[in-house]
Amino acid sequence: MFTLEVSLRYSPFPISIQKKDHDEVLRIFEHIKKAMSENADSILIDLTCDKIKSKSISLLSREIIAVQIYEKSAIAGGSKKPGFSLES
After folding, report:
1. Where are the domains of the chain?
2. Which residues contact 16 (CB under 8 A, 6 or more apart)?
């Protein structure tokens, strides 16, 4: 399971969704990056979660300040730390 986490301007907590397919989460990641980089009017981005089927989120692209992907590790029973870490 892959988690896509979005940080919003003026919000202390990130918004996240989970997807089973790596290609799909990468496609969404690239779509959000493209929307963030465009200087045109803000667009509405709709996200749905594979783990919680009833979870849907709509975001304005101009309010997104960061986006990241990380994978939940089945072996360790937890998840990798999001962001960048010096630990192996």
Report:
1. 2-71
2. 3, 4, 5, 6
